[in-house]
Amino acid sequence: MSAQVKRIFVEKRSGFELESSALGRELKEHLGIGGLKKVRIINRYDVEGLTGQEFEEARRQILSEPPLDICYPEELKA
Description:
With about 80 residues, this protein is an alpha+beta fold.
């Protein structure tokens, strides 16, 4: 019997996306991509072997920082 894999995507909220802003600046400056408007960094986590309750606790305490991050369950909307 295979364990169910739970997946979430985590992205920094507007105003806290320092890493993606820095990456956008680097792409514009070093690669000359002047038309670049925004860069998003989205981390994907696949977790296996946790109950639903354990997964929710891990999502809130380990995989994300709720005040700073947006969590997208399973599917990522563009």
